[in-house]
């Protein structure tokens, strides 16, 4: 089943420490490319997603990367804290697979067909 229509490379990182290493190009991730978009689960293991978000938004070479939070939480404090850390959107995961696929297609349509994203020079 194809969820999106735009070709992409998807890097899936399973925990917060690995996410930070990936973003910094450290350890096993030394040859990774800077992501164009980050879909960040609010409930990562071993390190808070908010800590990962703080790393992204405090790094001058990464702070322009759009970050969308995807979570099962709808706690107002989580929503507030994420927007306070400059996320671009906060998405509550639907429990139904068809609704999830629809949400991912809408996310793709908006971020990759509607929005103009910044082009970052390779030396940053």
Can you walk through the features of this model?
The chain is of the alpha/beta class and 124 residues long. It has one domain (16-114): Response regulator (Rossmann fold, 3-Layer(aba) Sandwich). The chain is 37% helix and 10% strand. It is built from four helices and three strands; from the N terminus they run H-E-H-E-H-E-H. It has helices spanning 16-24, 49-58, 76-84, 97-114; strands at 38-41, 67-71, 89-92. It has a three-stranded parallel sheet, covered by helices on one side. The model has no long low-confidence stretch (mean pLDDT 83).
CATH topology: Rossmann fold
Q: What coarse outline follows from CA principal-axis ratios?
A: globular
Q: What is the gyration radius calculated from CA atoms?
A: 15 Å
Helical segment count = 4
**CATH homologous superfamily, by name?**
Response regulator
Strand content: 5-15%
**What is the helical fraction, as a range of percent?**
25-40%
> Mean pLDDT, rounded to whole units?
83
């Amino acid at each position: 089943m194809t969820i999106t229509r735009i070709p992409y490379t998807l890097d899936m990182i399973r925990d917060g420490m690995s996410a930070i290493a990936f973003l910094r190009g450290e350890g096993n991730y030394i040859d990774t490319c800077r992501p164009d978009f980050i879909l960040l689960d609010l409930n990562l293991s071993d390190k808070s997603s908010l800590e990962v978000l703080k790393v992204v938004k405090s790094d001058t070479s990464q702070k322009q990367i759009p970050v969308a939070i995807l979570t099962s939480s709808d706690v107002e404090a989580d929503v507030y804290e994420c927007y306070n850390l400059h996320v671009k959107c906060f998405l509550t995961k639907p429990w139904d697979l068809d609704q999830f696929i629809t949400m991912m297609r809408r996310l793709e349509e908006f971020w990759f067909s509607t929005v103009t994203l910044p082009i970052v020079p390779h030396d940053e």
